Structures are given as C-alpha cells and as structure tokens.
Prior knowledge:
Helix content of chain A is 77%, strand content 1%. Chain A is an all-alpha fold.
Amino acid sequence: MIAYIIRRLLQLVIVLFGVTLITFGMLKLVPGDPAVALAGKGASPEKIASVRHERGLDRPFYVQYYKYVERLLHGDLGESLYSSRPVGEMIREAAPVTIQLAVAAVLIELLGIPLGVYSALRQYTFWDTALTTGALILWGIPVFVLGYFAMYIFGLKLDWLPIGGVGPTVLGIIPSTPASWSTLVLPALTLGLIEVAYISYMQRASMLEVSRSDFIRTARAKGLTERKVVWGHGFKNAVIPVMTIAGIDLGVLIGGAIITETVFNRPGIGLMIYQAINSRDTAVIAGGVLFATFFFVFANLLVDLGYAWVDPRVRLED
Amino acid sequence: MPDWDEPTREDRDVYGSSWVTAPEDVDARRADEVVEEVLEEQTKPLGLWADTWRRLKRNRLALVGLGIIIVFIVIGTTEAVFYQMHWHVRASDEAVRSGAPGYLAPYDPNQVNYDLSPEGLGSPPSWQHPFGTDFLGRDILSRTLVATRVAMLVGIIAVAIALTLGLILGPISGYYGGVVDSIIMRAADIFFAFPYILFVLLIMSVLGQGFQNVFIAIGVLGWATFARVVRGQILSVKSMEYVEAARAQGATDMRIIFRHVLPNSMAPVYVAVAMAIGGAIATEAALSYLGIGIQPPNSSWGLMISDAVNYLAGGNWWWLLFPSIALVTTVFGFISFGNGLRDATDPKLKE
C-alpha cells in the first residue's frame, strides 16, 4: 500500500507540474504585452522597460515559470487585470459557494446507485427500460438547459423556489436558514439529476457485468441465498468501480457547477470565471481554472487511494 | 422484504435476468427467435460488422439513436449544401420580398421583423411560424434548422481532429511502450486533470471567440481520450499470434501497426467517436451559451438559448424550448447509439 501511495504521489507531482505549466503558458500566450498594460496608458518606453524588468518579464521562460510556481505556493495567484484585486482573495470568497453546490450535488448523485441496482435486478422489465431510457435522455441534457427549464417552471411560473442567489451559512457551506436552503434546491437538483442518470447507468452496467462472473456462479453453487449472492457478493463488487467513476465525475461536476452558477446567479468560482471571460481577465480565469483543477486532482487522489485500499488488485497493478 | 429474493417462475420465463436465473440455465429470448438465430448462424458465416448489426438491431434505444443521428445529419448537410445557393438567389432578387421558402428552412434565418409583437418578445408559435419568432422577429424554426449545420460541423470536425491526434499518439504509445509510452500517457494524465469544460474555457479565452477556435479547442483537448482507448486496445492485441506472424514475415513496424493491429482495435474507437460527437455538440452549445463560442448573427442552439434566457421573465418559453429540444435530441441520439454500439461490440457480452 505504501509503495502504491508513493507511486501515486509521484504521478500527482507530474500532473501538477503539467497543469501549472499549461496555465502559465496560457497566461503568456494571451495577446498583448503585459508590461505595457501594467505601465498604464501612454507610458514612456523607459517606463515600460523598467516595469518589464521589475516584474521579471525580461527573464527567460523557465525563470518566469519558476517564479510563478513559487508565488502559487505562497497562495499568490496574481491580480485581476480588471479590478486589481488579488485573485487568491476572490477565490477564497467564491469557493465556499461552489463547494456547497458540488457537495449537495454529490449527495443527490448517490441516488443513482440504488436506481442502477434496481434496474440490473429487473433487467429488461418495464421499469428497467424506463429508467435506462430516462437516464440516457437526462445524461444528454446540458446542465444549463435543465437549469433554465427548472428555473422557468418552478421559479417563474409556479413561484415555489427562488431563482438565484445564496443565503447565510454555518461552517462555510451548510445553509443556516430555510431561505438559504431554498436557494440551494434548484441548482443542486439540476446538477445532481444529470449525474444521477450517469451513475445509475454505470451502476446497472457494472452490476450486470458482475452478475456474469464466475464467483457469482460459485456463490450460487454453494447454496447461498439469493440475497447473499446479490448483496454480499454482487453489489459489493459492482459498487467499487462506480465509486471511482463518481470520483472522476467530480471533474464534470465542478465544470457543471461552474455553468450552473451562471444560470442561478450564485457568486461562486463559476460566476467569477464567467464575468472574467466577459472582461477578458485571463489572470482570474487561469486562477479559477487552477483552483478547480487542484480540487479535482486531490479528490481523485483520495478516491484512488480509497479504491486501492478496498481492492488490492489495483495497488498491485504494474 | 425485497421481492427478488424469491424469483417467481414467471420472472424466469419472461425476463431471464441473469440474477434470477443461473447464467447457463434458461435462454432469455423466445424460442422461435433463438431457432431463427441458430438457423441464421448455421446458414451463413457472419463478419464482424454483420454480427454487430445483428446485435445492434435488438437494442431499440440504439436504433432510435441511429435514426436521430441520420435525421440530423440529413438536415445539417441539406442546409450546408443548399443554404449558400439559396442565399445568393434570395438575397439578390424578389424572392426575398415575396418570402419564398428555402430548401428546408421556411424563412431566411437572419431576416428580422417577420412578426414582432409590440413588447419586442417575438410572437408565440403560430401556423406561419411553427416555432414562433425571437426578439428581432426572426423565425425560430429556420434558425433552429440552420443551427443544425453548425452543431454537426463542430461535432464532426472537432472529433476528427481529436481522433487524428489520438490515432497517431495512441498506437505509438501502445506499440513501442517504454519511455515514449510513459511520456505520452503522462501528458494524457495532465489533460485529464483539468475539468474538461474549464480547460476549453481557458483555451478559448486565449484563442479568442470564433468559429474555428471552437473546433480547435474542442478537438485538441479530445486527443487524450482516443489515445488511451487505442493504446489499451493495442496492448491487448499486440501479443496475439497474427502480429507475431506478420513480424516473422518481415513486416515493418508501421505496417504492423496500421495494417494489422489498428484495424483489429477499432470497435471501441467507434464507440468513443459516437460519444465524443455528442459531447462536442454539447460543449459547443455551452460555449455559445457562455458567449465565447459561435458569434451572432450566426445561429447556434447554445446562442439561441442564451438569447432566450435573457428575456425568460417575459414568459417567452418558445425561445427556450425549441433549440433545447433540438440540442437534447441530438446529444441523446449520439450517446444512445454509442452505448448500443458498445454493448454490441463488447466481446464480454457475446454469447
């Protein structure tokens, strides 16, 4: 296990190196000379040159990259070109809103597991077909489409739920008032339902695959009750890959949360990035993307380690 | 007490779920179907594709998906082929004034003020405009049809870019192994580390908005998926005897890869292609919705949805409904066909 953890951590270092290199490259590739922008309008060539030197923009690429990583390690993600606020501070404010939504959606997403198991146990019945078809349709619905329909029907027409915003919280992410809970319902359901579809589809497939394996046949042959076969042997093995998928899916979920926030006007990382896109504020976009990516990478690491802990075959692979 | 504990006789006969019956116990299908199949199998040998089609045919959802794909490709290409032609004709002569219909689109998709209500919200669906009109009075049916072309183009071109890159890097990685493999696969890891839509956003913010950039961003980011799929296939195929035989005959590496290994590794790639086209169409819609994809006055489903939501409180549901239906149907078509294809080509599921 320790060997696996070390290998996985080495891999993590490589990935983080690549990710930071890419975001750094993107910042460099943005059209326009940053020194000119920083020096302000109508600055003299000498002023521009001195700003360039001050900021280290005349140093070689790898030195600049090294400085960039050094700043990242100190939590410095640069400044917004638009509002001049530190990006790190903007992210600290926005992150709890996004995390609240993502956690709520993950909890909803887990409903897919019992649905998938039910489908698999009742393969080819009416309910299986209905659930599978429903899952495939939901799976293909872009999150903003579902979001606006939910908003139009439940927010605007029926007026049951607020159409946006956030409320007060305790511990950063748990809503503390009924009004605060109600703002979370539509976004979380929108985001969660699409993932429920995906998870239930995967759980069904995984359950069916396990049902054909030899150890299930053995379990039956030794006379175990059907319940023991299904739950003790089948489900236990079938749910593991689905949990991994759920972990990988977190990336989709974060991406989805970002778009959901633009629909329901929640001031999280997504809305921050969206506004930055409109003002072409690359430092903020890169900072937001970097934050979401780190979150995703570490969540994946935890899922993988958990998987390896449960299933020894994984950690012994190559 | 869950009722699957005690499967009834009926359960066994009708559903034949592998849970309620032992796998080799009873064949789930109706007897005449089985007989027919056995006869079919005995009378003629089936190639890979005939076999795949035979199994795909049984999956109704996949057939629905295939039907949807065909319909939308026809709409998309019809527009692509005839739209330009009509354009010149209609822009230049009295056909515009007389309101002559186009090839599929009943109106010029960019013609404004067809039927504008006083509040500037367009008019709800009517016989003249089955999908209603938008905030400039443009015909939504025509715009939805024309946007099909954009969606199909993005889906196909972006995936073609990703597939090309994947089909170059995947085989190299899988066939040579070692350091080359490590480098390519670690690069793929890095690409997978980004939440996909955010990576696309980042690239688009650097490249700037626009038609070609949408292709490039979606296409370039997709390579890792294909490279991984192909590599996995190659690893499983490369130790097979026919590859050894080819090598013994003195075939070059290139010849072995492209002539022997790849053709036998393609089934999962086709599945990935179908899924990826659906994904690319959804991504384009998301980008256009966020305002950095396709730009007006071009028409795109994402763009139409984004127009609609700015006025949603006005109650103009038809702006939102029709492009959404088109988008969701298309994506569903590709995903459902891809899923069916996977089931039909998966050797593990073969009896």
